[in-house]
Amino acid sequence: MKWNDSDHEVAVLGSGLSGLIAGTMLAKKKHRVLLLRESGYQTSYARGGYRFVPFSSFSERRLKLPLLHKIAQGLGISLLSSRREGGTSPRKNSDKQKVAFQVILPEARIDLFCDRPLLEMEWKREFPKEVAEISKFYEEMDSLRDLIEKEKTKESPSPFFPLRRRSWIKRFLSMDGLPKTGTGERLSFFSKEFNEFIRLQMVSWGNLHSGHFPVSLAAYLLPNDDSGEWFVGGDLASLEEKILERFVHLEGRIEEIEMVGEAHLERKNGFILFLERGQKVFRSEHLVINAPLGHLTDPSGRWEKPLSKWRKKVCPRYVLVPFFVGIREKAVPVGMRDLLVSIRDIQKPYEAGNLLFLGLSSPGDESEAPEGRRALTVESVMPLGELDEDSLAGQEKGVRDHLQYLFPFMENHIEFIDSNWTKAQISRWSYPHYLYEATSSFDWREELVPTRLAKRLYFTGKENFPFLGVEGEILSGFMVASDILKKYPEPSMNY
Predict the structure, then answer these.
(1) How many domains does the chain have?
(2) pTM for the whole structure
């Protein structure tokens, strides 16, 4: 192919974390990469000295140290410097910060300490009648975690641990030693409160709402003595900004677009991308789609069958609706953590403000909120397809009622509740904040939606591994880049 201004080896549609990782890793290997991102989509919102960042799961707010090292090593960047001038540098957990997040149930409030003795004190206080059985459950989780870790020492392990790609024979035999039972079955003899306690942790770490969570997945996700290696003072939007800077430094190209109208695959030259309204045309040998699967359409019908197959396997059940609240420090109750998930009635559905995911800015961080104030990002859930002005107003009322329950004197210390960003952004094709539902049982160590959909067509994002949260996005980005790099073998070196 003769290069011209519109020709590239790889085009990445969408600027989410996994697409940025794939594009930057390819650009690092001297490949010509085009990043197409939606011109009007914003990943954060600022107002009156406050800065808010919407999130899909708590894993986007608790960035794990091993994952940061994986990105830094793969892309050749430093991620431990200050986020912005005047901001605080990411810092390792102090003793006070060794809490994953806080779970608030109608009859219980539990801090998820990674330190087991401290966590035991929490469940002994809140679930006194079930202490013996809960201890057995966590001992089982420890044993399963050891089995998963042993996979690292096996011959030819997957470079994308904890994921694996097994042959059809191994899939049939299923000789991995991990139980096939689900958490619902394993917890059937516990109280409804403890069941919901475990379920909310699973939903909060990942992007999946499911009744089929395998017990082994619970073992991998639930906090333990080794899972408290986080850095605070950073967030996903800041991480993406850092990677984007690296992409540009590596001579990656960025185009702001509204939408790709059509994508045709030629026999020899790869894809021809026609932008909406015919403004521009681009060519690329490979196409990486980094946008929610439900936003994809194929007017030509060429890929509609495989796309439809994967849409049926994993589909968004809820859209996460963010509200941004500016409050004074005095409104925050004593003992409330910076991250918490709260449900008011475990007998009712999650929508209408019954379930909230809340992220508070760190106290004293003036890059997030003015002095003496805190930025509160509140994520509520709404069934997909019900978003309009009236339903959003009803959702806000439910959120306000729930917040009044959590912050008893908030009305005296609140500055605003803002939904302007939500109204402007939630309908855009780049919007990534959903809770997905798997329509059948799944193996959490394998792709739910494959990273390779068709010849030269790749898909990466939250739906590949929705049960792993931001870790799944990072892994899928590296997997896509690795697959594409195999098409371009590096020339042999003479020494």
Answers:
(1) 1
(2) 0.90
